[in-house]
UniProtKB/TrEMBL annotation, chains A, B:
Ranges for domain Orotidine 5'-phosphate decarboxylase: 15-281
Protein name as annotated: Orotidine 5'-phosphate decarboxylase
Database matches in InterPro entries: Aldolase_TIM (IPR013785), OMPdecase_type-2 (IPR011995), OMPdeCOase_dom (IPR001754), RibuloseP-bd_barrel (IPR011060)
GO molecular function, one term: orotidine-5'-phosphate decarboxylase activity
PANTHER family tied to this protein: OROTIDINE 5'-PHOSPHATE DECARBOXYLASE
Biological pathway: Pyrimidine metabolism; UMP biosynthesis via de novo pathway; UMP from orotate: step 2/2
Length: 305, 305
């Protein structure tokens, strides 16, 4: 899988991932009202608005980027109706040839992680038939439970040629509370990084492993160290733009070959029309504003590589 | 919420929670075949079998226990169809007066955790209406992202009188890989425990906080220390029975007042009819086998308190 992602990063010349993390407050009034008109101010109405919003954005940007990262929480908050749109979004993006990274941060004891892995990346056996639940290409995973909570995800990736990004150093302000604490002189996230390398060693797919890492853009000094510590591990880098990470901060996430990282932006892309910079597009043309913001982000990042 | 849980623990005299974590391999053949007959060997067929299985078990045990803990992964693996049964199970249990602990182990950056909290415990605003997604009473939460990943859950609990169990020391074999590593002479899980106490300090509901902790039954020496460290924190204790924890191991999870912990068993209850001990019930009477296993588990635990 990681080799497919790299192919697409090269062909688009864009180490960029669009975070499809819709909040109702990002969705233009005309889209919301139309959905509420059809389905009421209900979970179904909210889900429809999200779907219409996503579809317009995907249609506007799909040819510029290799991958999208829907954050499942933004759908899960609307219950079954929201998750139905999560699935529909995944299917639509895959049909467009986009690689879909499910941002679910799942992780549990072994048998439970196996169920998550089957439902999100793999297949479940029902009688004599194999069925697929959400079927994303790659998934984010939480490492707090240790090896037996992560291994079932790796096994499914190996069987199905899919990929993971395991949380190592997250982009949020309080990520350091536990992740930065020193254990035998090294921060916890470096110990997690060692494990990610170990977990991914048997899952090489070309020059990189199918087991990647989440490394926030907001802590460049740490990315620099992690990049050296995990040369064969692809980084999914959140935190660019709205969360405060700049292109300059990002450059340490990449290897000398210009590969090794894919940078995510969510709000900065999908709610671009709300920014002063893209205001002239108007809410009616929010998709075109998103397209321009992707073009600008790609140029911004390629500028420092 | 925790005061309601305690009330129900006292009235049932059972500090026990049934883990509704159905795997297809736990479900008797006659239930599976009937569902496959109606819906085919599909996600819908699997979901129907899980629903029929859950319903029979809930009907057989609801009067004996205060709470159930459905593990969302076991439903999520069957995609939308599975999650629809997760929601149906929650609603059915709540109508029976059971407290429902959603075992979802969610946790992310602040805005994302806020979405999870709204969807699982609280409500989402859709236009002028407030809607509810899954609506459990209590939820398990992963602390790896630190305070800003947990705080949104606490806020919803405060607003809605609901509860949390934050992972401190999990029951799985590799939980020690990160959780037991020493930071300034104390294991990581003790530092997490300190934070759980801090996060829950403003959420007292009687003698205990609405912010509880997950403390595995499989590490009794650690429970002893955590019990002293977090006197006002309720423990959700997985790992009894099938995972290897015994009643003797559990006693350290309780305070002197006999309160402070609720012990979960999943496989041991819902797949009881498969055990040698309950084989005489036969697969046709799997609900009655579950009932007997609950009675035995309650007696076993009360014996050491």
């Amino acid at each position: 899988m990681i080799s497919q992602l790299i192919e697409k990063i090269k062909s688009t010349n864009a180490p960029v991932c669009a975070g499809l993390d819709p909040m109702l407050s990002y969705i233009p009034e005309h889209v919301l009202l139309k959905s509420y008109d059809s389905f009421g101010e209900t979970l179904e109405g909210a889900a429809d608005a999200i779907w219409q919003f996503n579809k317009e954005i995907i249609d506007s940007i799909w040819d510029l980027i290799p991958a999208v990262k829907p954050q499942i929480a933004m759908y899960e908050q609307f219950g079954i109706e929201g998750l139905t749109v999560y699935k529909k979004t995944i299917q639509y993006c895959r049909r467009k040839g986009l690689i879909v990274i499910g941002d679910a941060k799942r992780g549990d004891i072994g048998s439970t992680s196996a169920a998550y892995a089957a439902g999100h990346l793999g297949q479940v056996q029902v009688g004599s038939k194999a069925c697929r639940g959400f079927d994303v290409d790659m998934l984010t995973v939480n490492p707090y439970m240790g090896t037996d909570g992560v291994k079932p995800f790796v096994d499914v990736c190996d069987a199905e040629d899919k990929g993971l990004f395991v949380l190592v150093k997250t982009s949020n302000p309080s990520s350091g509370e536990f992740q930065d604490r020193l254990i035998d002189g090294r921060p916890l996230y470096e110990w997690v990084a060692d494990k990610v390398v170990e977990w991914g060693a048997q899952s090489m797919d070309g020059a990189y492993s199918n087991v990647g890492a989440v490394v926030g853009a907001t802590y460049p000094e740490m990315s620099k160290i992690l990049r050296k510590q995990m040369p064969d591990t692809y980084f999914l880098v959140p935190g660019y733009g709205a969360q405060g990470g700049t292109a300059e901060d990002l450059k340490y996430c990449f290897n000398q070959d210009g590969l090794g990282a894919i940078v995510n932006s969510s709000r900065g892309i999908i709610a671009a029309y709300k920014q002063e910079k893209y205001k002239s597009f108007g809410p009616e043309n929010f998709g075109q504003a998103s397209r321009q913001s992707v073009l600008d982000m790609v140029a911004d990042i390629n500028n420092v590589l």
